[in-house]
Structure formats: structure tokens, C-alpha cells
């Protein structure tokens, strides 16, 4: 044991994205010792990639007039298809405006109201009022009754993360970047820290803490096509799941975006279709009007995604070394329009796919975008199953989003939950004591050490980690995607079970020395496949359609049987999760129609991001 | 184009094993449509050499993780299409920063140090009142701050800078740009003299030789030349004893 570097602290935050850093700031400002761990320098966390903005009902801009937390609440609950926890949603909408203003004091250069008349792209003329000039403004995002999405030009996530990190630096909070938590240390009742691997040297380290908080972000990269950063592999979720006592909530709730660009899956915003772009198939036929004669390419996000998938399944996708895709065609809009109004999209196409949308087609396909599920917590952010363990941000199922997250609600969740849960973490930690059990820690480290030795020496087998990873990704993409049915889901579960057994037999091809990247991937692999199984199995069992979970064989929402949240546990030695269910708390708004003008299975997601 | 065979010559070295001297390793790869150096390096790792170290996070030129020297120039690997390069591609890690292994360098520690040295946070005597409306700000000012804040800490400007390559403590263009970001922010209450202490030395604005390699290398196309001139002008005034009224912003 003594050969390992050991760190002791009051609060250990795993993850330095917006959620993690906000919690760290709160706990540190209440006098607690805090250490933050992160795979990468904090400012490289995935939060920086969110460009669109965050929702808070300040109601300053003309199109936001009359907005308030009640309207935001209704949008959030409807968006979630009544899957969210309403107590949490209420807490969230009341706190979001405060959280935005606090970030302004700390340094975020929010875009502000400019007084005067303005013509919107659709021709409407609006007037920003003089008395609101200089206050924080907002833009339009899908699924909201008012313009409520606060932003900083095209870099909301970037400015939020840089400002938050400037507070972390100012307060002298310890950050260990390039450090990966690989397991929780616990005795079945209480969590007392983590075993981590240093990604500079490959050494194992021990962190002992009164409170451990998981803020590790989403799991997008379980899918072969995801808009997420490459480090979003669901680490924190499977580290919690692996304990056997902490459940993950609603893992089957996965959000997709219709137009991720091949081959690197960078998100192309709705703007392209909004301005008149077409989707074409391999024969250059425009197919959307055949499926959706009225709305064509402008049908809601989920509908377009599903139609695209359906069309590709008919063999009408364009084959590429990166799998089948479709074309986005904006050539007919003309060079001038493309280079001014759609400049951002044009730049992405030129820089990352090497195509010029003025004369070329843009390769796109539906792409995984957001993880609604995660470590299930109560409204204080305390994880089910273990004392001393909390979770927040995309890694958590606090349950603000239910079965569909509204665009702009997740950035808002990170700093709002950070503020609320940070206080609860501080309160809990003040009175907490830990029973530092030497044997427990030693065993936890030994277990990881043995795993590493087995991988390096190929003791359990010689399976190739990248092949396993590709198999997992493909199964999720093909069978647990945009629209789902019992037959495919069963296939996914069967295949993934086999993939899981293979993942226990990985052997490295390189020597695994130092900060070896193959070893890092191999250590994560069984946990990642477990998450994949939680998603697939949860989706198979949920015989209804709700929000982003669209079953072809059960196209209607079923409140009689399914107004409940899935809790997935992973018992020791199992090769499938054990599913339990709990009721969804309805405190204010009873289940009803979402008012999107479509059936639930064809519901509208948020716009942009 | 799509049929080219690419030859990558990649710098290999593990500082933990100094007995093996740095060397160049060659990999061959068939080019695919839309291939970036990000796609190519991952293919090499998965299909040929799983020990190869490099860093990517966002793969969309947003996070600043993946800067390296590509055929002699510091660039973001995720934003570099192979079709813009000759069939022979040489990759080296960024100089100046501490090497972690192969193409991976520790820019994070360097930039955290920069933030500490320039005290890159809003210096204010005000405390947050959760019940109050936000203070107003002119949108033009907000955009001006944002313009300087767009730096993604990739290190390209530092790697290509002659001064930074010889002076370990030089803040570089990124550092000077950072100071400019706070100078234009009316919420920051630092006086001109306080800023002088941060950048009024050889480590700061006066170490720069003005050759502008930084400006050419910045993938965010930040107006570094302009920011350098702006900060130097303001700082020189204070150095010469030109008094600006206390509490009045430099900008
Ligand atoms: C392209 C894109 C655009 C988006 N745009 C918007 C938008 O406009 N508005 C909006 O509201 N939402 C948007 N989202 C969603 C939003 O960005 C995320 O949900 C949010 O930023 C997640 O923040 P987080 O703090 O929970 O996690 P992250 O920011 O992902 O941070 C996770 C942290 O955990 C660390 N970590 C992970 N595993 C470990 C481990 N094992 N050990 C130690 N550290 C670890 C990482 O290093 C990182 O620091 C977008 C998402 C995408 C993909
Ligand atoms: S102009 Fe100054 S900061 Fe920029 S590269 Fe030259 S010496 Fe370095
Ligand atoms: S100023 Fe430009 S080149 Fe320098 S670190 Fe920032 S983004 Fe990179
Ligand atoms: S990977 Fe983020 S900038 Fe290249």
C-alpha cells in the first residue's frame, strides 16, 4: 500500500467540466479541502464545445418578455415527456437565473441586449426596449415558449468553462489533471475515495475523501457516431455501476442529432435545413418529401433522424469507409448566402471534411448527442446506494431531463446543479467522518494492479481492445439507435453480452508501460460494455415510446405502466444488468400532450445543441 | 487523391525511458476522403501501433489539445486535412512544453502557470447579490472581451515564437493577449500600475521581438499583432510615467 502515492482530502471531485468545477468552488468557499481530478486540463473538458447557450428565464430580450421560472418549468417537463423529477425541475428553473448572473460577476462576457428594431431571418420585425439595454440577452432554441437561451457569441461553453476555471485557479483549488479515476473505494455502504491512474506516468494513486463527487460527463463515445468529445466514454458512470450497489437511471434515454458530419461527427446545426437545405440519398434523390410531405426536411429533429435511418436501412445510403451516410445539399442557396448566413457551417465543412458546400455535398448522418441517463441521485445530488458519493452534470441522473433534454438545459444544469449540489456536498462533508480502513484500500488497489498485470501479460486471453470497442459501438449504433424495436434490441443485447465476455479476455498488443494508451482503453472496456448493455437492455424492456426512446412496436407513451424510471444495477459476476423501477414524482404538472403537434414517438428535441 | 498512400514519419520518445533515444518511426496509410491528421493518427494507433501517444479531445478545433508540429509548422492536428499536405507527413511534438511522450506535451500545466502569473481572473471588490439584477454592460464591450477570450490555449503561438524558445519565463503572445482580455473588461478593477507589474518586463511585453510568427500560427486567427501593440503602448505610457487617472480603464 505504501508504495502508492496517497492523497487525503475532504471533497474529491472527479471531473473538471462545468459541473465539477462549480461544485469544487462551492465546497472550497465553505472552507473545505478540495481536490479535482480530470482526464485532461480542465479547460479542455467537453463543456467548452457547447456553443449554443444555456437556458435561464431572465426575460430581458423582446422575444423573452413575460418569461419566468413557471414557463421554463412547463417547457422542461413537456420536453422530458413527463419523465423528469418535477421537484428537481422546479429547483432548477428557480436557480438558473441566479446562476447566470453569478457567472456574469465572475467574468462571463454574456451577450447583451442592444436596443432598437431588428428583422429576424423569417421576416418578423422585433423591437428591443431601451430600458433593457445592456442586460443579458437570449436567443431562440427549439422546444421553448420564449427565447430563453443566454449565450456569449458563438462560444458559451468556452467562456463559462474559462471563467469557472479562473475561479478555481484564484481560489487555489488543487487540480490533478491527466489523472483517471478507475474505481471507487467502498465497503458496500460508504464511499471513501478512488483508485486512480496517472496518465503522465501510468502509476496508480489513491485518493481518500469524506465525499466523492462524480462529474465525468456523458457517454457519447459508446456509439460509433457521436457529436461528443473523444474522452466522453462514460467513465464515472461505470465506475459507480461497478460497485454493484449504485444504480444508473434511465440509461435507455439517448438523444440523437440528425446531422453529424462524416467522418468526424461534428454537429451541423439546424440552420442549414432551416435556410432551405435538402437531404439527398445515394442516387441524389431528395427523399424527405416522400416521408413527410408537409414538413419535409423541417420536420422535428427526431422525425428527420428516424426517416434518415429508415432510408439508409433500405440501402439508399452512400457507402463510405466510415459507414453509410446521406448528403446535405445547400449548393442551391448560392455562394453569397452560404458564405455569410451559414458561415459557421461552411467553415466546419471546409476544415473538417474538406468539402466546399458552395459546390460540394456535405456528408451527414444521425449522430448520438446527449446522455439523459446517469448515476441516479436524489434531489441533493446524493447517489443512491453509497453514503459519501454524489454526482452532477451529464454524468448524473438528477433527473432534470427525463426522456428528452431541451437544448440549452444541460449547460444550465451544470452550473445550477453545481450551485445547489455543491452546498449539499459541503453540508454533508462538514459532519462526515470516514472510517479509514487500511485493508479496504489495499484490496482496492491490488484489484486494479492485478487487472493491469493480466492485461499486460494476456493472462485471460488475447482479445483486441479496438475490435471489441468497434463491435460495441456498431451494435449500439445499428440496433439501439434512433428508432428501436424488440427484435433489434434483443439482437443488441445478445451480441453485447458476447462482446462483454470477450472484453474480459483482452490482452494488450503493446507492452503497457507508462502512460500507455492501449492499457487505458483496455481498463475501461468492460465498464463501457456494461453501460452499453444497460442502454440496450433498458430499451428492450421499456415497451412504450417516450421522448427520445421511440419504439416502432410500441409507438405510444404508456403512462399507466411506464410512468417510471429505470434503475440499472450490476450485480457481481452478472453479464446483464438487473433492472428495477421507481415512480416518477409528479408534483405540479400532470402528464398530458406535449403540444408539439405530433405523437410522442415523433416528439421534438431541442435545437442547436 | 483518395488513392494516395501516405507516409507518416513520427517522433517517438518516452521520457521515462531515457535509455531509448528519440527516433522517427515510419507508418504507411491509405488516404481516405475527408481524412484529417486526427483520423489518420487514430487509424495508426488502432491498426498498427497501440502504444503511440497523442492528445485529442474535441476533434473540432475548440479545446486546444492537439497542437503539434506538422511538416515544420505548429498546427492543430484535428483541423489539418491530409489532402492539404504532401504524401510525406512529418509529425513532431510542440517544443517549449514538457514532453509527456511521442506527440503528447503538457500544455495544461504551462497555461495554468500563465493564468497564475497574469492573475487571469476578475479582480473586483464587489460581492455577488443573488437577488439583484445583473449589472449592465454594453454589448460592444462584451464582444470585445469575447474576442480576446477566444484563445484556446493550444500553444501554437508559443511553439513558433523565437523568444519563448529561449526564455523559459516569457509569457508569449497568448499571455499578452490574456492580459489584454482583462484590460478591456470594465469589471476588473486593476489599475494600470498593477498591470504594469504583470507585463512591463522582459517576461512580458518587452521580451517580444515583433517577428509575428505567433500571429501567423494562431488557429483561432486572434489578432495577436494588434493585441501586442495595444498592450505595449499602454504599458510604455506607464513606464514613461504618463499618468492615467486611477480607476479609469486603460481601454
Ligand atoms: C457538440 C455539442 C454541443 C453542445 N451544445 C450545448 C448547448 O449549446 N447548450 C447546452 O445546454 N448543452 C450543450 N451540449 C451539452 C453540454 O455541453 C454538456 O452536457 C455539458 O457540458 C456537460 O458538462 P459536465 O460538466 O457534466 O461534463 P464535461 O464537461 O464533459 O466534463 C467531464 C469532466 O470529467 C473528466 N473525467 C471524465 N472521466 C474521468 C475519470 N475517470 N477520472 C477523472 N476525470 C474524468 C473530464 O476530464 C472532464 O473534465 C452540447 C454537447 C455537444 C456534444
Ligand atoms: S511577435 Fe513576439 S510573441 Fe509573437 S512570435 Fe514574435 S517574439 Fe513571440
Ligand atoms: S493565442 Fe492562438 S495560438 Fe496562442 S494559444 Fe491562444 S489560440 Fe493558440
Ligand atoms: S482536439 Fe480539440 S482542438 Fe484539436
From TrEMBL, chain A:
<dbReference type="InterPro" id="IPR014006">
    <property type="entry name" value="Succ_Dhase_FrdA_Gneg"/>
</dbReference>
<keyword id="KW-0813">Transport</keyword>
<keyword id="KW-0285">Flavoprotein</keyword>
<dbReference type="InterPro" id="IPR003953">
    <property type="entry name" value="FAD-dep_OxRdtase_2_FAD-bd"/>
</dbReference>
<keyword id="KW-0274">FAD</keyword>
<feature type="active site" description="Proton acceptor">
    <location>
        <position position="301"/>
    </location>
</feature>
<comment type="similarity">
    <text>Belongs to the FAD-dependent oxidoreductase 2 family. FRD/SDH subfamily.</text>
</comment>
<feature type="region of interest" description="Disordered">
    <location>
        <begin position="581"/>
        <end position="609"/>
    </location>
</feature>
<dbReference type="GO" id="GO:0050660">
    <property type="term" value="F:flavin adenine dinucleotide binding"/>
</dbReference>
<dbReference type="Pfam" id="PF02910">
    <property type="entry name" value="Succ_DH_flav_C"/>
</dbReference>
<feature type="domain" description="Fumarate reductase/succinate dehydrogenase flavoprotein-like C-terminal">
    <location>
        <begin position="469"/>
        <end position="596"/>
    </location>
</feature>
<protein>
    <recommendedName>
        <fullName>succinate dehydrogenase</fullName>
        <ecNumber>1.3.5.1</ecNumber>
    </recommendedName>
</protein>
<dbReference type="Pfam" id="PF00890">
    <property type="entry name" value="FAD_binding_2"/>
</dbReference>
<dbReference type="InterPro" id="IPR015939">
    <property type="entry name" value="Fum_Rdtase/Succ_DH_flav-like_C"/>
</dbReference>
<dbReference type="InterPro" id="IPR027477">
    <property type="entry name" value="Succ_DH/fumarate_Rdtase_cat_sf"/>
</dbReference>
<dbReference type="GO" id="GO:0005886">
    <property type="term" value="C:plasma membrane"/>
</dbReference>
<feature type="compositionally biased region" description="Polar residues">
    <location>
        <begin position="600"/>
        <end position="609"/>
    </location>
</feature>
<keyword id="KW-0249">Electron transport</keyword>
<keyword id="KW-0560">Oxidoreductase</keyword>
<dbReference type="InterPro" id="IPR003952">
    <property type="entry name" value="FRD_SDH_FAD_BS"/>
</dbReference>
<dbReference type="GO" id="GO:0009055">
    <property type="term" value="F:electron transfer activity"/>
</dbReference>
<dbReference type="InterPro" id="IPR037099">
    <property type="entry name" value="Fum_R/Succ_DH_flav-like_C_sf"/>
</dbReference>
UniProtKB/TrEMBL annotation, chain B:
<dbReference type="InterPro" id="IPR017896">
    <property type="entry name" value="4Fe4S_Fe-S-bd"/>
</dbReference>
<dbReference type="InterPro" id="IPR012675">
    <property type="entry name" value="Beta-grasp_dom_sf"/>
</dbReference>
<dbReference type="GO" id="GO:0009055">
    <property type="term" value="F:electron transfer activity"/>
</dbReference>
<dbReference type="GO" id="GO:0006099">
    <property type="term" value="P:tricarboxylic acid cycle"/>
</dbReference>
<protein>
    <submittedName>
        <fullName>Fumarate reductase iron-sulfur subunit</fullName>
    </submittedName>
</protein>
<dbReference type="GO" id="GO:0016491">
    <property type="term" value="F:oxidoreductase activity"/>
</dbReference>
<keyword id="KW-0411">Iron-sulfur</keyword>
<feature type="domain" description="4Fe-4S ferredoxin-type">
    <location>
        <begin position="141"/>
        <end position="171"/>
    </location>
</feature>
<dbReference type="GO" id="GO:0051539">
    <property type="term" value="F:4 iron, 4 sulfur cluster binding"/>
</dbReference>
<dbReference type="InterPro" id="IPR036010">
    <property type="entry name" value="2Fe-2S_ferredoxin-like_sf"/>
</dbReference>
<dbReference type="Pfam" id="PF13085">
    <property type="entry name" value="Fer2_3"/>
</dbReference>
<keyword id="KW-0560">Oxidoreductase</keyword>
<keyword id="KW-0004">4Fe-4S</keyword>
<keyword id="KW-0479">Metal-binding</keyword>
<dbReference type="GO" id="GO:0051537">
    <property type="term" value="F:2 iron, 2 sulfur cluster binding"/>
</dbReference>
<dbReference type="InterPro" id="IPR025192">
    <property type="entry name" value="Succ_DH/fum_Rdtase_N"/>
</dbReference>
<keyword id="KW-0408">Iron</keyword>
<dbReference type="InterPro" id="IPR050573">
    <property type="entry name" value="SDH/FRD_Iron-Sulfur"/>
</dbReference>
<keyword id="KW-0001">2Fe-2S</keyword>
<dbReference type="GO" id="GO:0022904">
    <property type="term" value="P:respiratory electron transport chain"/>
</dbReference>
<dbReference type="InterPro" id="IPR004489">
    <property type="entry name" value="Succ_DH/fum_Rdtase_Fe-S"/>
</dbReference>
<comment type="similarity">
    <text>Belongs to the succinate dehydrogenase/fumarate reductase iron-sulfur protein family.</text>
</comment>
